Amino acid sequence: MPNPRLLLCALLPALIAFSATSAAAPEPTDESAKPLSVQQILDASPASDWRAPDPDNTLYMDLDAGRVVIELAPQFAPEHVANIRTLAKEGFWDGLSIYRSQDNFVVQFGDPTGDEATRKSLGGAKAHLPAEFERVDPALNFHALPDTDGWAPQVGFVDGFAAARDPATGTTWMAHCYGALGTGRDMAADSSNGAELYVVTGQSPRQLDRNITLVGRVIQGMPLLSVIRRGPEPMGMYDDPGQRTPIKAIRLASEVPAAERIQLELLRTDSATFDAVTEARRNRRDDWYKVPAGHIDLCNVPLPSRAPTVKP
Amino acid sequence: MPNPRLLLCALLPALIAFSATSAAAPEPTDESAKPLSVQQILDASPASDWRAPDPDNTLYMDLDAGRVVIELAPQFAPEHVANIRTLAKEGFWDGLSIYRSQDNFVVQFGDPTGDEATRKSLGGAKAHLPAEFERVDPALNFHALPDTDGWAPQVGFVDGFAAARDPATGTTWMAHCYGALGTGRDMAADSSNGAELYVVTGQSPRQLDRNITLVGRVIQGMPLLSVIRRGPEPMGMYDDPGQRTPIKAIRLASEVPAAERIQLELLRTDSATFDAVTEARRNRRDDWYKVPAGHIDLCNVPLPSRAPTVKP
């Protein structure tokens, strides 16, 4: 009988190994020729392949269960991000809640009050913003994947954010992958202002791409959001306020004392290390895998993070 | 300021509308030409487009939080399904647990005991089975999607199960979509026996396709599995048995008194209604969507179910 601990390990992504050889190459036969594991690739990476997120574009969402860390994407949604920064500085979300959790889709938070007269004031933030569904900006640092995608002509990453591009029109947009942060809107394209936010917790709903403004992604703490009990009402809503998840505070990291900030480094998605990690996942070369896929979906690409390495 | 209730509705998949017209067709301009919603399509479906799952191939997994209903796929994994039926009849999983919950990946259950001497006996079930990663069976009722897929030459559905196919080799295999049920294995391809099972709870890990035996899918109750708190140890394991989720029982529906069975009908995936629902999701034509995707991923296709309609 197989050892059940090994049965478990067999499904562990972190154990998946890597080889720079093509899918048609023969398996290595000696120990020295073994493909590097993802961890070995990361361990060998130069410090320059990592970056610390900008505290001015980092949000801390504090729940009773812990802290969710979000990186904002001003390169994609400058007006929404500016508004969100204002809302965070003024404590807009403090004391509000996650009022929706829909299975295999999103959690959503903000002020669920339908009556405008009693809704929480937006304070110094703007009530109306333009839609920021896509960008035409040659300065965007788009790092393309070679992999085909059914949703877009081209996919890749911009500064850590999963994105898609249409070379014919020169437009680039963020993609709805797990952990993406977006802004709820009404029927009009320009009806979002950043006060109502959602995070993708299910199978990538890419049909929303180019239909709604994405503003960032969760870089730490997804397990705090993904396990929130699904709301019993349609769309995963909770009519009973007592079932909602309270938000203690949402703050910009730059507004939090330096000693209380989360120290985190993210692998640069335009680095050789990132390419090597992605290839290790595209063609898995360890002994467990019998058929390497030869492909990776945009939303399956790992985005490694780590605690900062201390220099001696 | 937009009404936040509308902001929420805007993200509701069930409200998405449908049109049989092509992506290039002009938007309808009068009320009568409005595209049908998914619900309207389902409401207009003939009874013959629905089926009741076979109680002999349906599992009830009873947790403290409620019942998870699983449909087995003997057309893909006859030997594993036969073993699982034996294990269920003999109560193998009763009193065992979900001992792993890894964020954006899987939950896994069975007997986590590493020591073979103290592991739960497989009873009348076989300890060794052949790998059942893919099938060469012209009788499989493969209903192809027109949509491109990066993981496989062709994708579609077989009797409600998301699947992929390689016309060049004549092989068909089940796909790792949300809710797929698979069998843990060791390094050897033929080292699974159906006692250790996992359910996909995250972004479709399609790289596992053709590398492990899938045996069915969850047809009701995913929210009971998807919210299980992620295990604190590597791979989402719980070293503390008190943190695991107890399994009260796993039974074949056919072994449960008829009056206690879940009454459920599934939309046939080879029906015209299914094609219409899929098209409604591929090209969303309601007023909220500004850019219909013109594409749907295999793992985003909805698989509707309903309580049986009572005949007058």
Number of helices of chain A: 5
Low-confidence stretches of chain A: 1-28
Number of E-state strands of chain A: 15
Oligomer: homodimer
CATH architecture descriptor name of the largest domain in chain A = Beta Barrel
Order of SSEs of chain A: HHEEEHEEEEEEEEEHEEHE
* The number of domains of chain A: 2
- Give the strand line-up of the largest sheet of chain A: 2-3-12-10-11-5-4-13
Question: Beta-strand level of the residues of chain A, as a percent range?
Answer: 15-25%
Could you tell me the CATH topology label of the largest domain in chain A.
Answer: Cyclophilin
Major sheet description of chain A: 8 strands, antiparallel, barrel
What shape does the CA trace of chain A take?
globular
Mean pLDDT score of chain A: 90
Text of the CATH class of the largest domain in chain A? Mainly Beta
Task: Tell me the layout of helices and strands.
The structure is a homodimer of 312-residue chains.
Chain A: H1 4-9, H2 38-43, E1 50-51, E2 58-63, E3 66-72, H3 78-89, E4 97-101, E5 106-110, E6 142-144, E7 154-158, E8 161-166, E9 171-174, E10 180-183, E11 197-200, E12 214-220, H4 222-226, E13 245-252, E14 265-267, H5 272-282, E15 305-306
Protein name (chains A, B): peptidylprolyl isomerase
Pfam families (chains A, B): Pro_isomerase
Enzyme class (chains A, B): isomerase
